[in-house]
Amino acid sequence: MVRPGPPPDDLVVVLRATPGALQEAIADTVAAAIRSASVYVVEKAGARHLLFGVSVFTVADGGNPRDVLLRFDTAPTYAQATVGAPRSAGFRVIPTGGNLEHYDVQLVDGVAQEDDTGSAEVMMAAARQLAVAGPLRPNPAYAGAAPLTPEEL
């Protein structure tokens, strides 16, 4: 389900809750995008395209990424950016699902439902998407980390 209207460029999203190393984060992102394309399509200009999408969640206005990261306590790191960052790198950010905080970043766009794309293209796009967010950040909600203090919650 695609919701109407694009998100504003200054909206902060947690791009990915990720494994600890960049190469593992890229591989995890590729796997998620390929799984997405095996299940979902989006309509664009009257055609159905595979959704090589990566789920992202918004950080409430004035909120803290920890509020989102509490859902992902098995991931030691995360990537964060504003919606404008992946957009400026050429990625579509699509409001998807019933949860108003959920979006998909379309890693590879324009692949018709009857076509396919190579995983190398998806891997390059995943690396580029993570690069726009900058270095991976430690997840303060990670179950393997020190417990959060009341101030951090």
How much of the sequence lies in strands comes to 15-25%
**Measured on Cα atoms, how large is the radius of gyration?**
15 Å
For the sheet with most strands, the description reads: 6 strands, antiparallel
Shape: globular
What percentage of residues falls in helices of 4 or more residues? 25-40%
Mean pLDDT: 87
How many β strands by DSSP? Answer: 8
The low-pLDDT segments are none
Topology diagram in text:
Layout: E1 12-18, H1 22-39, E2 41-44, E3 47-50, E4 53-58, H2 65-69, E5 77-82, H3 84-88, E6 92-95, E7 102-106, H4 119-133, E8 137-138
Helix pairs in contact: 1-4
Structure, described:
This protein is of the alpha+beta class and 153 residues long. It has one domain. Helix content is 28%, strand content 25%. The chain has helices spanning 22-39, 65-69, 84-88, 119-133; strands spanning 12-18, 41-44, 47-50, 53-58, 77-82, 92-95, 102-106, 137-138. The strands form two sheets. It has a six-stranded antiparallel beta sheet.
Jot down its keywords.
4 helices; two-stranded antiparallel ribbon; 153 residues; alpha+beta
Task: Give a brief outline of the structure.
By secondary structure, the protein is α+β, with helices and mostly antiparallel strands. The protein has four helices and eight strands, in the order E-H-E-E-E-H-E-H-E-E-H-E. The N and C termini lie far apart (32 Å).
